[in-house]
Every structure is written in structure tokens, then in C-alpha cells.
Amino acid sequence: MDANASFPPPVNQTARDNLTWKPFSVFDGCDSQVEGILFDLTVQCINVVVGIPANLLVIAVLVRKRKNPATSDIYLGCLAFMDAYFGSMTPISFLNLYHWHSKEVWSALKFSYGVKDTSGPLLLSCICLDRFLAVVFPLAFGRLRHIKYRLALSALVFALTLAYSAAKVVGGLPGFEKVFTGEILATFTWMVVCNASILRALKKSGGVGKDDMRPMKRKAFKVVLSILCIVVVNYLPPVALFPFEDYYSPDVFSCYVQPVGFAFLNISSTIQPLVYLSRLDKVPFLPDACVRKWCPCVAQEEDTTTSTSNTSD
User: Fold this and answer.
1) Which CATH code is given to the segment(s) 34-278?
2) Per-residue b/e over 210-227, b at no fewer than 16 CB within 10 Å?
């Protein structure tokens, strides 16, 4: 409410307000320009069909290997949990758009969007930091290998995610959209620089007398390269579009530019777990025939590994 507005309002002002009052709309001002929002929700349907099972499978794999975990597994587990939660909200979003029209449900959905906006970039940044220390600064990585450091960093990510999501639900905060733009720019820049440094260090580290290390470094190279591809595909569109908000009309930016940019960001809830599962030597809980049918690249890698071991024998 304007600070200069009188209270209570004059009778004629109240009458005008009653005449112009509109029921709550979950399209949030884009009632006549819904194409961008529907495009985002359609893309999110992939998260329901593929993303949720893939993220649950990632969690199951991490639980199964909990006795011999990797240092970044805690970040992967948090990321899979957050992505599964976000994907589970998509059916509720469709029901609220076309059936419930509930403001309370819309607040819960805005909270889930805040979780996705914050947790994904921050947790991926943590994974990049973990790999960066392991490859570029191995001595420092050895000193910081204890899980307490990763638990503390994960707790910080959860706190920031909760604060951002709560502020998104409240809404109306001046310049709040700039917070996400700044966050996505900062995390994108960090992840690109970090992964580029890792790739450069891995390419330099191969040399004479290190033949026994080459397979491990080649695997690390593939891991980092896959993360870099995820960063570019999922985060480059919003990074390229959102900083130019002032060049678009408010309606075009809110109803078209933002939903399309977020669609690329939201589909990462499916791409991230699939990339992780594709890097596994063997996907547990799934029969080999199923893996060979749907993941021919994994099957080909297994065949190559088997033939190489047979040759060496």
C-alpha cells in the first residue's frame, strides 16, 4: 500500500476498488499470455516421468555405497532429493492451474520454485568446488577431506535456500528478481571457470611414466566435462536472457522470457541424475538387458572394458 494513501479510503475509492477487483489468478498477470508458462510446465512433465524415478535411483545408489562414499556424494544426494521434490510439485501445479485456483497452493508452488532456483546452482557449485580442490589443490583437499566440512557447506546451502524460498513466497520485495539474476550469474561464472581449470589441469597432468594413472584421469576428465555440459545447456539460457530484463516490456519478460529461461533450468532435474547414472560402471536395481537397451553408450563402454581386460589376460 502506498504510504501516502489515506485510511480508511473514501467511499467512491472503495467503490472503484470493488468494481476493478479480480479473483486470484495462478497465472500471476499472464492470463492472456500463457504460452510461455505452459511451455515451462510441459517441459517439467519430463521431470515427473523420467526425473523423479532417476533421482530416486540416484538416492538409492548413494545409500547403497554409503560405506565407501565419494567426497561429493552428500551434495549429489541433496541435489537428487531437491530435484525429486521439485518434480513432485508439477502435477499439483497443473491441478491448481485448471481446478483448484488456490492462493495457498500457489504459495507452496512458489516455495518449490525458490528451492529449485537456489539449491541446484549452489549444490552444483559445491560439487565443482570439491572436484576443483581434488584436482588442482590435492594437498588442501586432503586436509579438508573430513565430512564435517561438507555437512557444514550443505547446511549453509539449505539455509540460503530456505531464506530465498520464503522471500519468494512473501513476494513484493523490491529488486528481488535481481537476487536470482545475480546468483545465477555468479554460480555460472564460478562453475565454468572451475571446470575449465580442472580440465586444463587434467590435460596437463598426463605425461611419461604415468600410464597407470591415465584411465583414472580420463574418467575424471569425462566427469568434469559432463558437468560443464550441464552447466552450459541448463544455465546459459537464463544467464544470457535475464540480465537484459530492462530491454523487454514487463509483460514480455514475465510471461515469455522468464518461463522459457526457467524451462532450461528446470529440466536439469532430469538431466543431472541421468548423467550421473550414465557414468556408473553398472546401474544397480536394473537388469543388464534394460541398461543395454536404453543406454547403449554404457553397454558399449562395458564391452570395451571387458574386451580390454580379456586381452590383457
Assistant:
1) 1.20.1070.10
2) eeeeeeebeebbebbebb
